[in-house]
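Regression test attached.
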Amino acid sequence: MSVTASPSLALAQPAGPAPVPLEKAALTAVALGLLALLAAAFDADPARARLSMYAALALVSGGTLAWSWQVFGRGPAGVRQHGLWQRASTARGAIAWVTGLVLTGFYVVLYWFPGLLENLIRTLDPFSQALRHKAADQWFLYGTFYTLAVLLMGGRALWKYRHSPYQRIRTASVMFFQLGFAFLLPGLLLAFQQPEYYFSYFWPLKYDYLFPGTVSSLVQNGGLGVFMVFWGGLMSLVATPVLTYFFGKRWYCSWVCGCGGLAETAGDPYRHLSDKSRLAWKWEVRIIYTVLVVIVLLTVLLWVGASGAVPALEATTQPLSKAYGFAIGAVFSGVIGVGFYPLMGSRVWCRFGCPMAAYLGLLQKHFSRFRITTNGAQCISCGNCSNVCEMGIDVKQYAQRGEPIIRASCVGCGMCSTACPRGVLNLENGPREGRYQGSQLIHADSLRILS
Amino acid sequence: MHLVIIGNGITGVSAALTARRLDPAARITLVSAESAHHYSRTALMYIYMGHMRYQDTKPYGDWFWAENRLELVHAEATGLDPAARQVQLSTGSRLPYERLLLATGSVTRFFGWPGQELRGVQGLYGLPDLEKMTRDTQGIARAVVVGGGLIGIELAEMLHARGIHVTLLVRESRYWELVLPPEEAALVERQIALHHLDLRLETEMRAVLGDADGRVRAVVTTAGEELPCQWVGIATGVAPNLALATSGGIETDRGILVDEHLQTSVPDVYAAGDCAQHRAPAAGQVPLEQLWYTGRLQGETVAHTICGQPTPYRRGQWFNSAKFFNLEYHTYGRVPAAPEAGTRTFCWQHPGGGQLLRINFEADEGHAVTGMNALGLRQRHAVWEQWLRAATPVTEVLARLGEANFDPEFFRRHEPAMRAAFARQFPDLPLATTSAGRRAVWSV
């Protein structure tokens, strides 16, 4: 019997027990909510659109939470991945393609055709006025949806991983930073006539925070603006290396960052879709460090141009920074980064494109105490760790050889450790001496496995 | 040298990788009827439950074999001619060898139950079994699993994940009674109860009943009860796969008989892993070992001998691990189901029923630790290996217990409670005042 080409073991199967009535009701509520959202988008009557919007938010929120509780919140706590590779929604089936198209389409409209969202934006005016003392715009709409996604799917993650204190605390952390630092605080700053500033995003991810234009406009704003410039510089250039030295890049990527926050919550059902192949790793290295080099050079050029040392330099740097904003800031991080969740996994942007991740990764690889330790000779090569790695690291290659995992891309989400059925993996911050030391209890073969 | 290895499981592949390292010039051929590439047998359950796909369970990428010059033959070895040094393949061709390693693994053991040939009665050992199980459990409502060991609970978990009602028939009076002490067995049984499985202890299967189409329709137990079901999982153990060895006239008993160098009765033919039976097992070892870890170790050992570095098989400190639904299990050293003579046993349990730590130690002066069981706790293999090898006194182990803690960050530390329990259970063995043990979480 040949099993080499044996798709019969995968998709043809039902994913398990049929959904119980409450699950169906919850999913129906989500679907009705999405319909109400569509109704609001096409309703020119502001009062009625607002009503549809409120109904949509209530139905989607209530439905998502009820479904999550039903599926993950009850019964014995533990790793629950049943049907992950068998459902059309999480195994690149028809539902995944539709979801991907809808998400991608939303980003295209948001960035380039915001006029289409006018009715939706207007429904948020009262909320925006209350929080920010100004009318809503497309970014407020986006921020509201984004934060809601992190909070609702964060609730799902809290239930799903309730057996792991590490996952509970980490999930609560990304929810807190998204809601507080990336949504409420920037809104309140606006309400107090201050610059809209995100204290949880740093250069080079938030690339313009160290651009001369941003810096000079913040400084002109006086006291708080000067602090913001100081904060941005401090976080990017001092705190980042120091924190990464002690904790690895996870202190940011899977605990604080908003992109990471969305990936860890809304993206959790798709984490296994990241490509674990050697080829994907090669492309990852080629692309992500290129982006880092480009943004560092661009920043330097902008400063040189602003200093006036090289006349007419600004004529070239301005279009360059616009091009970067379009290609990396909009297309890569938004359209591809989130739109492709259901097809390529939740960390496409973080893995292939984010210059902050590249910077943190270099620090993590070469100047950090962080590593994932493997426990003696316990690995059974089952592959669960690689499967759940959202960054596409083939974790088992290290575990089955008894070697610690020290990779630039690892965001320290801890899911490999959580999913391991033999307790083999543990995230640790230890002394740098002997950081690469493998286990003496396993005879590591010296064959070339990873290039 | 041309080394031919029959079987691409963990034993055969470990031998191939080790041989490649020791002898870069050797020609190495792996023959397998089951799959074109090595996959992790322990991951079969995760494929069924939809956690992973078949391709996710391959420990190495498909490119790995060619790059390391390991030739793969996807065919069944149907015959062996030691005189001509040739293996007969199902493709009709004959494969010559200079050294031959039999790593043919096991087959499910059936005990001659009436009706065991019915469709829907099977064990779970390899990919063909998984395909059969996938097909025959499609849309069914009830299943019966026979056997109270590791595979039994795995089968139960798999079926449960698909919403199939499971009845577990276990001959003994507690779960995995031959291996687990009563407290450990009780925690496993608690997991079974939490998942609403129907566990029948001291009950065996008497017969399987079929319908008109030759499919299972019920199981009759030794209690005389008829349990309607559409599928029956046989988890009463495996037996060495001897077919090829027998065809080549190699001496066998329950397994293929091997000496301490894993050499069979025929020159240049070796056997390792599940299929091998040690003629003279070393002290404290058993003749048949059917574990992932021992397969890996035997494969590595035999490759040394094959490559001209004769190395006797020494298992070293015993260890094993498993997971019973959500309950992780580690064991290091010797922890028999009933305490050995001359040893004492310390057992701590969390009142919540989720964690257990047992430490066995010598009753005599010195009180050296002899073994450890952990349930719902992760313990460092290297630390325990060292403690066991050095015959560390139990009081010292208790004092330094934090060093062995491998639980993730932010998990509750139970060492103080464990030490308090030890002081209560063994007032005659005072513990030294302890240092903090494991360094604090997020320490710098």
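Expected vs. actual: identical. The CA atoms of residues 128 and 180 of chain A lie 15 Å apart.
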